[in-house]
Amino acid sequence: MPPVFLDRQKQSHSKDKVRKMANGTITERSRERMLYTGMAILSAAVIFAGFSRTYYLKALFANLPLTPLVHLHGIVFTCWLVLFITQTSLVAAKRTDLHRRLGVAGGVLAGFMIIVGPMTAIAAAKRGFGVPGGPPPLVFLTIPLFDIVVFAMLVVAGLYYRQRPDVHKRLMLLSTISILPPGIARLPFDFILATGPLAFFGLADLVLLACATYDTITRRRLHPAYLWGGLLIMVSHPLRLAIGGTSAWVAFARWLTS
How many Cβ atoms from other residues are within 10 Å of residue 130's Cβ? Predict the structure, then answer.
């Protein structure tokens, strides 16, 4: 067989191999984009369903008045979910230029959340508010306050690594997963009411583990962002309950709400 023909055959095989690798990469990226967009929509759906009776669709269930602070809290956190869906959709549509511009708004919005969240939690504890099946209000206060602490740590880390998309997007997803427990706790299911923190923390952890497992299977290794960010979320759940049960925390919470 002529050498020229052999060279052309090798070149053809090489091009086919490159084409297959490129197609595989495109498919993997498409699936990853679908995952993040889907998780953004799922997170918003969980929060909407959980707070539908007390906030979003309150007029259909009860006419209890809400304070301006609660309304501000609802607006700010809802904006985060809408922004997260928008940002993941922009990446899926390959509009990273708009994604980066909106990222500035996301940082500002996260700052508002870090301020408004604790204020609302302290005001609710002061009124003696908790969740069905949950611990007493002063003990329960550890849950929303730690939610914000964990959320803040993940968002700050995500913004710090904004030049590394693989780290940034995982940390931003984890930050949103970290604020799911309040919505899950208010879902009208008997097993959630019966088991309390075990259910609403456990279900949030299952969502986290599902994302980490999918990531590990597709990449053949666990990404460090999922490892350390996931550990931060999961370890914080029993830790905050343990802290909330101490006399020192109750005294501190009583001081906060006095």
Answer: 18
